[in-house]
Amino acid sequence: MNKNRFDNKLSHPGLAFQPLYKQVEEHVTQLIVEQRWKPGEMLPNEFQLASELNVSQGTVRKALNSLTDAKILNRKQGIGTFVSEYTGHHSLYRFFPLIADGKTPELPKAELLSVETQVATQQVAQALELDATAKVIVLSRRRILNDEFCMAETIFLPHKYFAILEKQPEVPHTLYHFYQTQFNLTVRVTRDSIKAVLATKKDAEMLGIQEGEPLLEVTRVTHSLDNKAIEFRLSRCRSDHYHYLVELG
To answer: H-helix or E-strand containing 190?
Structure first.
């Protein structure tokens, strides 16, 4: 069977009331979730997709452009359209917005301190859409920029998706690439909530600063392509010579 061919599912009742290009967009997204095309693989061209789905080439182009804007696809001029792969540099600009003052963005290192299994707290269970008694994998680590600790992170992952991490000897620096390649969980969206806090004694020990120094606390909830809540992350970031950069538009 030609791997570039796929079943026409646009007649699915859940898509019936959406604009046609949105139906194509969601269908292509679902095929990526099902690993019809894996990270880094090239999709069929617009003409092939339009023919298979019985829609116009313009409709396909609009859907692919929307998925490209959402960073799900990567279009290379004169070559083709590829499923985005969350390599270190890709993740850097999209998912790690902490930058040293006067410096260009760089990929931080990570020091993994512990991996534990716990019952989710109420806050974590709510964020990850879990039952009150559900288990989570908890990663504790520090991020390093310019040879100093700049951020302390506690990361909560649903045990039902990430149970293997209990026996994982090493966890890489770039977690979103790890989720994508090892667990078939591609990040679609992250939502960050930011507030100013003062460093606790634990923060001071973790980051090598004084207790009471100002920090940025970033609370992040991450969803996958198929809208699963896959990560709740609590980060405490130094603010003495670091800033949090967000690009809009």
So the answer is: strand 187-198
